[in-house]
Hints:
CATH class: Alpha Beta
Distance between the termini: 43 Å
Order of helices and strands: HEEEHEHEEEHEHEHHEHEHHEH
CATH architecture: Alpha-Beta Barrel
Radius of gyration: 20 Å
Helix content: 25-40%
Number of helices: 11
CATH superfamily: Aldolase class I
Amino acid sequence: MAFPIQRLRRLRQHEAFRRMVRETNLAPSDFIYPLFVVEGRDRREEIASMPGQFRLSVDLLVKEAREVVALGIPAIILFGIPDRKDERGSSGSDPNGIVQRAVKAVKDQVSGLMVITDVCIDEYTDHGHCGIVKDGRILNDETLDCLRTMARTHAQAGADMVAPSDMMDGRVGAIRAELDQAGFPELPIMAYAAKFASCFYAPFRDAAGSSPQFGDRQSYQMDSANRREALREIALDVEEGADIIMVKPALPYLDIIAAARAQMLLPVAAYQVSGEYSMIKAAAQAGWLDESRAMMESLLSIKRAGADVILTYFAKDAARLLR
């Protein structure tokens, strides 16, 4: 009989034992910290739906970046909020645009920190969609031209990695070809490979002012019910030249993270999105749960599912606990 010979509690009795046999471990090096950058100077605007997160002007972003690298977090990802928007998101491809200037400033003034850029036009369009719109339809191939140019200007500004999040078909291949032709063959691409049409993005859209002005994004972001399709999307992005693939959101799609890890040899990233962050924050503020424990448990679950890299707004708080 297995009992009482096998008593699994034996190695749970002491903290030292628990640490010794722990199967999954977190470290600050697992995290990428998302940041929002806006025009102006000395500008720090708290995001009401994301307590503890801010829109920062470039000068304050540089200060934040110094704190991030001091905590042992290896990378940030930038989301730009421009003063000017139009139907094609033109300001997103401006060599002197908000993200391009932010990249240059961080790379010039902060050593040892990788700067990743989001490649998508939704933050820069007046209609809030991730693609060019004509007669109420999102045009796939026309959007690729915008994404190529945006990625190239990010690379020219000094970005260490680009991350297309638009979910247009073929965008990874288009960006790879553009970067190679422009003299950036070694610049990696982290593809939002399985990005689901999720309600958990709502606080981000509040932060970035990027909510669609009509309809929704279900014609290009994935149906939440589809696991096999997610693996097809991931495989296509790998085939097109992605260096890291991402699943977004994280917690509602741990099964997709695990399946991607089981089938792919590439690094797997997962984005713990704004809604996941804000739920924990709101529950903690109401006194319904312990924020630090909920934060660490959620991050551990993402790592345990198979994520090598976690994009999370908790990066700084978690890094402080892990030091």
